[in-house]
Amino acid sequence: MAACTTKDKIWNASDLEVWVKDQAVAQGYREESIQLEEWYRDEDGQLVWHGEGVEASSGKKSPFSIRVDKVWTPSGSD
Fold first, then answer.
1. CA-based angle 59:21:35, to the nearest 5?
2. What's the alpha-carbon Rg for the chain, to the nearest Å?
3. Record's superkingdom (predicted)?
4. Maximum alpha-carbon separation in the chain
């Protein structure tokens, strides 16, 4: 990853997008099929980025969600 990351935190928004795609691939989605929503959502205090892609095992397109709050802290947060 880029220089704006550490093992536990991501500091650059473009790196966060790459990280989310990597997580989707790790969950079994084909990298070339991944489409992310424009940005993550706050869902009951958890930051979650949604998208969809083709599952490698089934070949079917399906939605997914990736929690980003473990690696990302929005600007202005303490």
1. 60
2. 13
3. Bacteria
4. 42
Question: What's residue 8's pLDDT?
Answer: 79
What DSSP line would sit under 4-40, residue for residue? TB-SS-B--HHHHHHHHHHHHHHTTB-GGG-EE-SS-
Residue type, 74: P
Sign of the torsion formed by the C-alpha atoms of 37, 66, 73 and 21? negative
54, 68, 76, 18: CA torsion to nearest 10: -50
Sorting pLDDT into bands at 50, 70 and 90, what band is 77?
low
